[in-house]
Amino acid sequence: MTLIAILIDGLAAAGYHVQATSGLHMAGTIFQGVLTLALLIMTFAYKGKRLGWFNFSTWAHNFTFRYAVIILSLIVNAVLLFVYVLNVTGQNTELLFH
């Protein structure tokens, strides 16, 4: 699943490039939403080990590397989806597309 999350990140980058050059902002937003939904499903469907060693100095468990890749991919794509929605609704036109 970690490799799939990395591939989804590559698809998201390619989708951004396509929508930025062609002007298909709504289609790009929907595509980003589908990718983010797929990552959300992957986050809850992950069957591997989620927590690694226990850190006694901070009293916390750390994520395993594989699960952390999926979580970080979800967070980044969810933030990008939020920015895309702001752009499509006209709230933010400065940062994303020129």
Please give a structural write-up.
This protein is 67% helix and 9% strand. The protein is mostly helical and 98 residues long. Strands 1-2 form a two-stranded antiparallel sheet. β1 (51-55) and β2 form a beta hairpin.
How much of the polypeptide forms β-strand, as a percent range?
5-15%
By oligomeric state, this entry counts as single chain
Portion in helices: 55-70%
Gross morphology is elongated
Helix and strand pattern: HHEEH
Instruction: Specify the structural class.
Output: mainly alpha
Mean pLDDT: 85
What is the gyration radius calculated from CA atoms? 16 Å
Q: Strand order, biggest sheet?
A: 1-2
How many helices does DSSP assign? 3
Largest beta-sheet characterization: 2 strands, antiparallel
**Alpha carbon gap, first and last residue:** 34 Å
| Spans where pLDDT lies below 50 across 5 or more residues | none
Number of strands: 2
Quick overview:
With 98 residues, the protein is mainly α. The protein is 67% helix and 9% strand.
Give a quick set of tags describing it:
98 residues, mainly alpha, 3 helices, 9% strand, elongated
Question: Which helices and strands, and how do they pair?
Answer:
Layout: H1 2-22, H2 25-45, E1 51-55, E2 60-63, H3 65-88
Antiparallel strand pairs: 1-2
